[in-house]
Amino acid sequence: MRIVRLANFVTPSSGGMRTALRELGTGYAAAGHEPVLIVPGPEHRDEDTGQGRVITLPGPVVPGTGGYRVITARRSLRRLLDELTPDRIEVSDRTTLKWTGAWARARGVPSMMVSHDSLAGLVGLLGPRRLPLQWLADRYNGVVASSFDVVLCTTEWAAAEYRRVGAANLVRAPLGVDLALFGPERRSEWLRSTLAAPDEVLLVHCSRLSPEKRPERAVDTLAELRRRGVPAVLAVIGAGPRHGALVALADGLPIRFLGHVADRDLLAGLLATADVAIAPGPVETFGLAALEALASGTPVVVNRLSALPEVIGSAGVAADDHAAAYADAVEGLLDRPEHHRRAAARAQAERFDWQTAVDGFLHAHRLSPLTVSTGSSSLPGVV
Questions:
Q1: Angle of CA points 27, 33, 36, to nearest 5°
Q2: In this protein, which residues make up the domain named Glycosyltransferase subfamily 4-like N-terminal (predicted)?
Q3: DSSP per residue over 249-318, as a string?
């Protein structure tokens, strides 16, 4: 089966989204299907890769997003979809690509929208006085759900905004983590000596540096720990529009800004070398970076408001959204014997392998390994 996947708001350094697209495409190909990925970029490209065919269409940068691009040439994209004649489409954007659900329905092609973000959560960040916006978000989510045959959510937290509007076409499937790449054995004494003194606690924050990820909470947490006399230092991995503001906020604190780390082996080493990871995003629908930290044997402090408590289980701590609570959580994790906390983190991550994720996504498409194409069919109902 030819599974055409579409995504906007991606960049070469967009982290979790690119990881998920790559791993799912690789899994679809290994299962005997023909994945085709369409993404925006600076110029047109058409490549055969390990994750299948990847077509890049020219798309402008969205101002203020730190490099995110979108495909705006709807006519060109529609023509390309017609040429590709997909057996399934999988859409990773509920806003600018919502129209592709109608395109697919008009041609009898089963469609699935993967909910990688939370519109209700993003609106909630504006505060309780924005209740009309929450109502509009619910209305929009209802329209989105009716535009596609299936809406796939990776956590129950992500599914909640669709359940609230009575969507009857929800399915659940988790994302995964590369358990061979990320592991406790990647811990590096050389990296440790580069980033921290022998008696210091090494914290790591790994995410896109954008407002919805709330990276300033990691800086505030470090400041609070230092105020308490905890000899902690922080490594920040990632890039984004909040970088300059964070550098200013970090003035006088022992923080290393490492930027986007494209070398996956180096990233695995950094995560395994840290003592605790901090993932403070309040609207995370899954949190791949936090899961990669767990796989590396590093426990994680997460925002209680997000989906991450579902992912980390008892291998980390869910904290209220202020620096004192995060500092308490970090100290609580450090009080656990190191061997126990690292083993618990790895054990939790082992529940989320990519093969399980691929199987779940294919099941949502009503496909299986080595399926023989027999034309379009309807997709499954709710889980």
A1: 85
A2: 15-169
A3: HTTTS-EEEEE----HHHHHHHHHH-SEEEE--TT-SS-HHHHHHHHTT--EEEETTSSHHHHHGGGSEE
Distance CA 195, CA 202 (A): 8
- Condensed to tens digits (0 to 9), the pLDDT of residues 44-59 reads 999 999 999 999 999 9
| Dihedral sign computed on CA atoms, order 74, 58, 63, 264 | positive
234 is written with which tokens? 């922080």
Q: What is the pLDDT of residue 257?
A: 98
pLDDT band at 67; cut points 50, 70, 90: confident
Specify the DSSP class assigned to residue 181: T
pLDDT in tens, 233-269: 999 999 999 999 999 999 999 999 999 999 999 999 9
The better pLDDT of the pair 63, 340 is held by 340
Q: Where are the beta strands (DSSP E) in the chain?
A: 2-6, 34-41, 45-49, 52-58, 88-91, 111-115, 150-153, 170-172, 201-206, 232-237, 255-259, 276-279, 300-303, 317-319
Here the tokens at position 297 are: 């044997």
Size of the chain in residues = 383
- Alpha carbon distances (Å) from 107 to 19, 72, 375: 30, 22, 12
Q: Which residue has the tokens 């092609």?
A: 109
What is the CATH number that goes with domain 184-349? 3.40.50.2000
In the predicted model, is pLDDT for residue 380 greater than 70? no
d(CA 51, CA 205): 28
What pTM was estimated for this model as a whole?
0.92
CA distance linking residue 371 with residue 317, whole number of Å:
42
Do β-strands 52-58 and 45-49 pair in parallel, antiparallel, or remain unpaired? Answer: antiparallel
Residue 70: φ, ψ to 5°: -135, 150
Say yes or no: domain 2-176+353-364 is CATH 3.40.50.2000.
yes
Can 2-176+353-364 and 184-349 be said to share one CATH topology?
Answer: yes
Domain boundaries, the chain: 2-176+353-364, 184-349
